[in-house]
Fold each of these.
Amino acid sequence: MKTFYWLVKREFWEHRGGFLWAPVITGVVFLVLNVMAIITAEVLGARHGVHIGGDNVQMMIARADAGDLKNIGTGLDVAMVSSMGLVSIVMGIVVLFYCLGALYDDRRDRSILFWKSLPVSDTSTVLSKVASAVIVAPVIAVVVSIIIGMVQLVIFAMVLSMHGVNAFELIGLAHPFRAVATLISGIPLYALWAIPSVGWLLFCSAWARTKPFLWAVAVPAVAGLLVSWFGIMGLFNLPTVWFWKNIVQRALLSVFPGSNIVYGDGALGATADVGNDPLSVLSPLHTYGLLASPNLWLGVLAGAALIAASIWFRRVRDDS
Amino acid sequence: MNAVITANGLSKQYKNAVALDHVNFRIESGRIVGLIGPNGAGKTTALKAILGLTDFQGELNVLGLDPRTQRDRLMEQVCFIADVAVLPRWIRVREAIDFVANVHPRFNRAKCEAFLARTKLTPDQRVKQMSKGMIVQLHLALVMAIDARLLVLDEPTLGLDILYRKQFYQSLLEDYFDENKTIIVTTHQVEEIEHILTDLMFIRDGKIVLDTDMDAVGERFAEVMVSADKAATARSMKPLDERQVFGKSIFLFDGADRATLESMGEVRRPTVSDLFVATMKGTYA
């Protein structure tokens, strides 16, 4: 267990730039853009004598009924969670390239000879890389998103309070804890959903003698083209799209958080009652419907098989 | 004596070449073995087989373990340095020590730090900022702090200047080697390790062509400097090699009668490199 902890720590040392700084910088850029937008709006507003918020907002809140207040709160929640969107795209890219290099880069620069000179099994090495991809990276991304989201909320509240709106009252309308819980609850689901992609990318990384990226992309793409061309899926009474959606996309794009939403099966069953509470799309009650989807579990199985194959290739491939 | 490594019928075939051809050898504890051969003779393949980094046919026993299936346990007792450039370039000195200290059960942190204190390396330095010589100092510090029974060195001093090379072997001898440890080393700089070896193994085209200890080398092989008039006699005794120096001929003999040789001229012990050149004649032809 101690060895495994240090193996994961080693991954973090090596990929600090991707795991930590990429989301942090993305978040900061997001905040800066927001602040710039607010300043632009303020300047334009002042120049043209338009009052943004101001007394009107104050009056609005004073006169608002419960439903309107809920809308304001929701707006703030969405503003807070929206930072997650950008951060998670960046994280998806980081995880994709991390997995492609994880079992290949050290073979290329021959440092595999150093790692293999230590009493660490190939199984723990590969599993430590899986854990880094599906747990360490998303946990850091979520923590960064939460911090950025909080700062975002405070900035909005401050700007509005300059216009005479009671900032605390506003924050009281938002649901920061619910938003935080929502983001955190997404991590285990992401881990399960991303397993087939992580497995496929690690497999290419462990198996390819050169250019793992090319193999990882070309194999599913060419397979998809052949399937489309010859209409092979017709044999199983399935449309060709099925292959692209359930094999190609699952192999390559499941590392992007939220990519499961596209699939609908089970996940969006509750769309109807989302109504005017967009946050509930991301709420555990809603997202955990995915656990009932065979797509998820078949993916986990396929991913596990690919990871087992990666371990085997990690043992037999050396620096040559 | 207990054997550290025994190989029986060790073979390894690549797609279009035989790297090891039914090799048999045995390495005892407390020896420093030089495994010497021309490029492509199978040295690195033999070492990789010993370290469990490659598959092979035949029998190989390292410290009582099978390197193919028990590699994780084997590596607690075995260290290796495969030339200088294999430390990951991103790692810092501090991180390397932390990692090995927590992953290797036989690592002695104090020993490693004491060794590093004698170098110019600083804890926050990254491998990519180091010269080749400094990288090998770090690697050696890590390896020497591990209480292992077998140390495998594959061209450990390749590309180092002479100061680092001397220091490398000196550190190994003074601070590391003892009767419980065994070192296998391959190198092309034979002259530099000649005096520290206890055993010598020549490998050529996947076969061991010479396997002997250094004392026996002196008894078995002899070099005689013969003047021109006796050269024909010397040639009739089937020398391994003949070369000309200052109008005299130098003959290298394997197992010839000492007294006969002394009657022909000055007899000396051949250097390992002369022996090597004579044994490997025609390798690249």
Amino acid sequence: MAAAETNNMTTLQVKRFKPSENPTNTYLTDEKGVWAWMTTVDHKKIGLMYLASVAFFFAFAGFLAIALRTELWEPATNFIDADTYNKYFTLHGAMMVFFVLIPSIPAALGNFVLPMQLGAKDVAFPRLNLASFYIYVIGAIFTFISLAYNGFDTGWTFYTPYSSTGSTGVIWVTLGVFILGFSSILTGTNFITTIHKLRAPGITWDKLPLNIWALYATSIIQVLATPVLAITILLLAMENIMDIGIFDPAKGGDPVLYQHFFWFYSHPAVYIMIVPGFGIISEVISTFSKKTVFGYWAIALSSLAIAFIGFLVWGHHMFTSGQSAVATTVFSFLTFLVGIPTGIKIFNWIATLYKGSIDMKTPMLYVFIFLFLFSIGGFTGIMLGALSVDIHLHDTYYVVAHFHYVMMGGTLIALLAGLHYWWPKMTGKMYNETQGKIAAILVFIGFNMTFLPQFIMGAQGMPRRYYNYIDQFQPFHQTSTIGSYILGVAFLLILYYLVMSLIKGEQAPSNPWKSRALEWQSTSPPDFHNFAHTPVVINGPYDYHKPMEEFQLGLAVEHNGHGEHHEVETEETEKA
Amino acid sequence: MSEHNHEHHVATAKQLWLIGGALFVLTILTVVVSSIPIPAPFDIITALVIAFGKAYLVAAFFMGLYWDVKFNSMLLIGALVFFILMVTVTLLDTMYRQDVVPSF
Amino acid sequence: MANHSASHPAHVQHHFVDSDQQFESAKMGMWVFLVNEILFFGGLFCAYIVFRAWYPDLFSQAALELNKVWGGVNTVVLIGSSLTVAMAIRSAQKNQIRGLRINLLITIALACVFMVIKYFEYEHKLHLGIAPGMFWNPTPEVLAELSHPKANIFFGIYYMMTGVHGLHVLVGIGLMIWLYIRAGKGHFNSEYYTPVEITGLYWHLVDLIWIFLFPLLYLIE
């Protein structure tokens, strides 16, 4: 081993820390009681609290979806009236987007995993992290207050002038979303700083797990886009409270300007939802193929490319809104560009699978479901980006199906993959593998039954958000409704076996999937400080050709315990 | 990771007063210039040039970007780039519409 | 990463290796937050630019209702407060706690002067009926000068921009009082003055925004 030749190489004394298989002292045993949980600044507990909240809102909004599908079983009134129907689909959309999809992966799983993958003890600003959770809760409370004021039926996009007529329900929910935005901003700020400043020795930018790259790209979008939503929503609230006039045509304002503002946030926001999903897929695919990720830099940088291009395409939501022809053409062209980095990712994942030792565990099953569903969602997105096609398909069920294929078939399936992948680490318990696979297959069947017919009836002209329909569409609607019931059953099954695993699941080994990633080199569940030592990283997170010992190194100076001492050289992590 | 324990830059009082003075002068200048009739696009350009000059002084010296790590400057420039993107792409619509505000 | 439990100074949180890492993290976090702030105001500036490009004559007409002199005085006041904040940070870096407190006090005072002037400007306009949104009810004399049918939109934007900026000034005053109290308790020294530094960054941004608001709102005619 040559001595440090360049001045950015340092020599560290390290030794191996083999994680205990039966930890007695974990983050779950360290602080106990409700109060300790509510005031904790531990990123792992905050992640779990987010996970529980996200699950609650998912169940709530999912229940609304089931009600909507049941209402659509036959044309005209079935069991809820038209106004209630409008409120239900608005609430379903707003909750799923703002309370489930946006915080789901970054704030719940990301909070738990990000510091561990960096070998840090916590995120850079732990108290802000807790604050962001409570801001999320306050945002939710505002939304429920809005329900008490007769709710809101504007659709989740709150388009003016319909949303600017001074309804009290709309004021409360817009304030709720305004507050919620700060939760997202704080999480993004925290993650960017943590990734830059708190990496363990040896973790250089080319040794960052792809999940971290994805969360980094996500955080950049959160930081750049969310403030625009905040000001938009604030202006909308002012429009409602005192007719400020900027967006309201009756006062001389421009409603299309509202749509620009709204989509400047909300288009990048769909990448806030999907890009962290890409990160999970990269992690899971490598672990269960026991193989180095193919095209590390291609996957890492395509996340950043998506983040950037994602800011330039928002106008494709507005092709029929009266936007100028020049803008429409430019937006359509730019929309096609987003397909390129996404395609790069898909091909690199497939190449990673090639000649790997593929282990079809539940998380990997979800990865395959993701690849199938997300590809369909992506391709239909390209169709919708084509101007002439969009004029026909705009505001039909085709758009609804596309959106659900990318958001549910993409983000939510990736979330399920990540949840099953990290569940043993988070809880220290194994779930029932057979039931997990059955549920995954049920999700796949139910999902396609629900949304595939919607592509067909959308292409045939069934408009979205309609309460009533002509008889021709009834078979499609009924298939879709049955599919949604199957989905409901599948999610109940998932809930059942996950809860059962907590009650009487067997103790999880520290590294059940034999992964090389850093978060798996801790105990299950992890220590309060994530690692009892300061981890040192000398290999990339996907170097499956190297022995496991090389992934369990830590600084030797803190403890004078036993074990052989090594000397390793690491590139000094950048300290900007 | 923390080998170089670098000192924080401390600006001298003289530097700070100089910057403050320059900002003061530029403020007077922009008010004076605004009362001179300059033809249409150039009046706003002059005002913005002066404003950006003042902004540079504040960001570089009061906020210490001049002595700071480059990444923080990148953040500021990045924010401006995305703001400009937002404005130009929005103008691409609003400036090329048939009617200024589409009638309903 | 050195020994992280034994030699920790009291102000360093457990998950940081040393004081330097904590300071640099806090500063970077603040800069990321300022990116947020810039895009938050960016939305308002975008609305301003769009409407100005549509109705240039409205903007030059409406600017006549704004008092250039008081706007200019307020600009000077804010620049002065930026200078004193920079001096406060310098005092902290040099361990001069008395200087830190005096500079913070001057900053608070200047910020209050800004708000008082802003109050009288608003007062005057509201008196003339130049009020935001549904309170828009200009007196006949004002209407004679301000005949543009979209004048309410300009003042909608004006009140939103200056109002949101004013809220930031109020938050800044609160933060500065908090710093003043903590400085009195001896929390800061040349080794640890992170809150002073990042509040300073925030305050300079509030100044930066005003540097653009002033010519764009007051000096167009």
Amino acid sequence: MSTISRKAIKGIALAAASALVLAGCAAAPEEEESAEGTDSGTSEETETETETVDYKACMVSDEGGFDDASFNEEAFNGLQRAESELGIETAAVESNTGATLTEYSSAIDSLVGEGCDMVFGVGFALATAVRDAALANPDTDFALIDSGLSNDDFSPLSLENVKPIQYDTAEAAFLAGYLAAATTETGTLATYGGILFPTVTIFMDGFKQGVDYYNAENGTDVSVLGATDEDQANWSATGDFSDIAKGKNLSEQFIDQNADIILPVAGPVGQGTGQASLDSEGVLLIGVDSDWYNLEAHAEYKQNILTSIEKKMSDAVFNVIQSGLDGTFVGGDENQYVGNLANGGVRISPEHEVAYPDGIQTALEALTDQIISGELVVNSLYKN
Amino acid sequence: MKQQNLVREIFSGNAVIPIFAVLASFLFGGILIAFANEEVQQASGYFFSRPGDTISAVLNSVFGAYDALFRGSIFNYQASSAEGMIKPLTETLAYATPITLAGLGLAVSFRSGLFNIGAQGQIIFGAMFAAYVGLSFELPFLIHMPMAVLAGLLGGALWGGLVGLLKATTGANEVVVTIMFNYVALLLLTYLLKTPVFQAPNQVNPISSPVAESSRLPGILGDGFRLHFGLIIMLAMVVAVWWLMHRSSIGYQFRALGYNPSAARTAGINIPLTYILVMAVSGGLAGMAGASQVLGADRQLTVGISATFGFDAITVALLGRNNPFGVLAAGILFGGLRSGAVLMQANQGVPVDIVLVVQSTIVLFIAAPPLVRSLFRLPKPKAVQA
């Protein structure tokens, strides 16, 4: 036993060593300084990035982290795009699972201390931290995704250096609900959230409204498990935005109850639904925040992705950074950005592998036009 | 029996193993930081043509990261003002407050032979009780603040004591029960934050109003700092726990239970009652950690009020060898890791997960004293005569 394991270890060590040797065999790049020195004789350091602009945009994530293949990642992509296309500097702080309000504050504080010109707080959990930092640092611009600002007594607050970025996701979710109701074979859909924040239930609510609309139009009786109760507080949720196993578990329960299309609104937890879709025949899922079909994290089950309800946060982040760079940044509540179908801030992803039923594509386009024109109103907290 | 010996070896002994375990974890963390660094990855591609590049890249990345960790947790020599220089240390102490309080609670239970994994839930209960008092009453500061802190203690003690009661009456395993109780507490908190009990009026998000001014733990150094009176409470508790465990007869009974329940029973100690007491004391300390978060740090109740303090506390109790002063030292270390991780990430782009890895490897090394001994060529301890 011991000799075998020793041999095995030797083998592994040998393999690892040779891999390292091979990996280290590339030629060294030309030494830039020496070339420069002989040419011009100056000792000035060469600029490695020619386009570097003196502007620094920074971002703090919430619980899921920037690799959540969903909410935070979508926002982070905007920051990265700004770095590569605008040539600005960036820095980002990822919050650990179980970050406290004070940790969000100290993350923002240290980014301000690092000289950031603009700081993004991703998620309503950072609202208080962004507010406090914005009050203490009036010369720094802030943008808050998914929330407005409020005072301690929750009366709304408007600060000139904070731009709220919010999304009327219900409009796109409505289309997804309509599409799912038209696609289902069993007449049963399902949805669940991570934690039932308003920014989560807005997906589920819009989805449900879309299903109801389809039912009324076609005399069908498609139901949505997980959102059956009148009271949104009783809808299904896994309890966090990190435990993928819980998402799989809950999805399997829904599948056992005959659901064949599931909408997980729980960031990375939705990967559990994707895994569950692989174990059962004919189960589809709907992605959230970005087009899951194109994301590596969801590649394994992308053939089961019906569509995704996209919140184009990367666009908004990019645009806000650009405005900061141009000096055209305007904050304050009256200048908040609310993404909807009309301004392209939210949308549903185009048809991929799963074919839509006949005529649905045109129906969706018609619905989109009606929502944009205001003829059809999808209820949400952004419309009262 | 063998398992008990192992447990005893992990829990007892001097400070040598913990200190070396921390050192080894930082070394290991340094290796990971170097591997994850992009410049190191690029330079190692041509290691054999110019090894100097790789070595300097490695040194730069590791030194840069730990330098940022130091500046973020102890003393920021790059800050422009004196206030900014000492701020990191105050942040460290602010984080250390709940971690140490919960760690003390766990140390009491571990020392008494009860493996309480439920600090997370007990913190939540303490926080809920403290928040309730802080939100519902208008009282003078001198009454309100102590009352809110005591409510936190009571909340944690009830939630912990219930586990002791279940163990005493039904023999329920405290490990399983406390783990499950963590979920119950979290789900209850999530639920209550959606009801008028805690949820702020006109608020759609699950978050409470800020607790009344008169119930808050006052700041120690003024507005620019997050350090609050909870630190003083925490330091007092360190001494109180030391007195309880080493100078009082109740503490003697607790320790007797931990050494040998059968002998303790023969000696006339009321075992069921002691179970309940141990868990109540343990939970009460964790509950104070929750109170300190609600009344001192966050000042409002949220779903994330307990953060991961309850789990950090397990490591802190292990690292501190269940000795109150050891727990304090370990708590400050963990507070520093939490506070320094932010700057390490903001300044050097080192993922926060590195800190989690360091914390986890500390547990690993502590759980394997022979490994640490062989790593640092420490002598074997003499066999302990029982």
Amino acid sequence: MTTILPECDIPIPQRQPHIVCHNPENIVLPMCNVQTVPGDMTERGCTFAGCRGVVGGPVKDAIQLVHGPIGCAYYTWGTRRNLSDTKLHRKYCFSTDLTEESVIYGGAKKLYNSIIESHELFPEGKAVFVYSTCVVGLIGDDTEAICKQASEKIGIPVIAFHCEGFRGVSQSLGHHIANRTLFEKVVGTAEPQESTPYDMCIVGEFNIDGDAWIVKPLFERMGVRVLSVFTGNASYNDIPPMHRAKLNIVQCQRSSTYIAKMIQDKYGVPYINVSLFGMKQTADALRDVGKFFHLEENAEKVIAEELAKYQPKIDNYRKKLDGKKCFIYQGAPRAWHWMGPMRELGIETILTATTFGHKDDYEKIMEKANPGHICIDNPNALEIEEYLVKLKPDFFIGGLKEKYLTYKLGIPFINGHSYEEGPYAGFEGFVNFARDIDVAVNSPVWKFINKPLEVS
Amino acid sequence: MARSVTINPPKMCQPMGAILAYMGVHGCVPLVHGSQGCSTYPRYNIARHFRESAEVAVSSLAEDAAVYGGAKNLTEAIKNIKSRLNPAAIGICTTCMSETIGDDVKLIAKKALTDDSMKIFPASTPSYVGTHLTGYDNALRTLVETLAVKGEPNNKINIITGIINPGDIREIKNMLRLMNVQSIFLSDISETLDTPILSGGHKPVLPDGGTSLADIADSANSKGTIAICRTAGSAATYLRNKFNVPSVLDPVPIGVINTDRFVQNICKLSGASIPDDIIKERGRLIDSMVDVHHYMYGRKVAIFGDPDIVSAIVRFCAEAGMNPTVAMTATKHKDFAPDIKAVNSEYRTDTQILEGTDLYEFHEVVKTHGAELILGNSKGKDIADDESVPLVRFGFPVYDRVGVYRYSIMGYNGSIYLLDQMTNAILGHKYDPNKLHQ
């Protein structure tokens, strides 16, 4: 049997097709990208989260205005570690704070006034991003028209994102909505100040804990000019000229392939997929980019410099981590991004899971998986607990919501969403990642789990 | 506030508070009837404040529910939770979505239950009305409305805590123990959201602790109810109106006078007398205030948070000789302004009252009225940094320091701890070490 029904799921057998034990002779992908079973204790979030939290949120000089009751704005205020060199997007939280009156009579006027006032108070904002939440979709505010009217008044772009939380099955639709909105309304609205034959965008890199600050210089050292990062530490003004890149590279291939493909289809700019995690994958990405721009020698030079500096450190960590087994549960791509790098540390990933993976994510997981590897689509809390207890990994890379459950079970944990002490990308970041795994696995604190208090 | 736009709100929506109320009930699984973000976001906040896992179910409403209603999802969610977890109860909270589409949650829940082996609490908690405190109050009242039943008098006192920390609840329990008073806590997160790692990594399916359904049922037979957070007082009013349980809605026991009132209320309702140990605790609080008054006299302090706790801290700061310049709450409450005005008149202070506003406005007023110290949750960090003053953290959520949930700022003992925190912040920030050698 390739699919599995864990004990906790016996009452909800519809979960069985989502859980697969890998058999290379008979490859089956978990069922994915479908509605969650109601009440199954899912870890999923909503479409608003994918749009505002993941893709739109990192744009550092846009006023991020959430149109809805207060919760949705509050909960996305500085919660993802999408760092930037300015403070506007993480320090401030803007909300129309809709109340019952607006739900009955509409929130149009409140939204219009909120846009105008935000601009007056924060003139440094280069644009206003307006995100619709569930209730806005239900009461039917014409946010498109309001944003247009407000934009004419204040003279800066006001972009409406129709990302009501109830749309779609997970955060994933929110990524797509953000990509499509930014492509249709922003990309191509301005030309770059200058163009070179070596212009490239890094797409799907959100500067989590400073990842972009590690990977961008690697390409610059090769002689590539990074036109934009979509959207980590990005200015609003970085997005309009993306169509003039000569090449796009896509790091988060779940949340951002959409825009790379749209730019390719409309403007003929090719894109390539990269994994900027781990030594080999990062080197491969540099080589692929070097090959495209005919900068092979430069790429090899940068790789050699980085390996000379960081490979010995990785080798040291490998000595301490060789033979360990781990679980990786991420949104989607980091599950397969990290399986290879774990092997560079001598670690085998025995279970992967994703919150909102699509077929292509699971194909990439299965390409890397050993026989017997367990793969779960949209796992719920009970499944995670059951597998942690059953398979007892040496550590688990997940998100904050799983962290303390894992600790109670006496299992080391690494926050893969925001990181412990990142950045984790690139050669240098991988040393941080390895160090955090070493800290998690080899801390003496775990010794007390199996040391009960007894009177001898 | 004259603005339409809200900037940096220190308030959340109703489901957040309702989930916290349900998490204080033994064997109760919170179920959010709404979009998936409506459970995920509160879980995230609970996890980062308490550093605990917070399991919350969701009915995963999507487009079809927007058109046809959410009854199918809610029914299936109830069935699935029961068959997989077999909990004592499910605590439902609604959201802006399920309220706007107009699901009759009570009716759906009633139909979904095939037998009496599990209770369902159907709280109405629309996110576009009130704040997290409204949600807490609604869920707590729903618990009592669903379960409370007249029986034999039980000689206990009901304590409604509001949204306070496990450390605070433990301190209040400690006081009641010293006074030999039995109690029912409505509800009680002191164990459910501060769980131990057990030997061998053994973990119960649902956390130990929390108030039992039997105790909530028995709350109708108590000698009285004390709500220390008046924003959470509607359950007390319900018990009084329906079962003649006397109720007192009084300030949070922080500082000398408010804690005195709490002790006096306990004595009046239970007939207990004040034991020596409580007298000694009170004496230690006064001793701690005397010890630090040279450091703290006239110190300007600006405070933001939930209204009951802010007004109690304002009074305590005034008692300690400090100068509370700004008191801010995002949740409006009728007692907030009168509380602060009373302190102003008793201590000749001039505390600015900000109610139903946001931290952007709070910061503007702090700039004009001054602060040497800011008290609030983690959302005050940037303001404190901009003003180059320390932030002493209390309230919810505090995610950028560890352990805040473990310690109490309530009762005489907790007040000592709070004053020490404030004083040490001032000493660390303001004082030349040469002046601190004795």
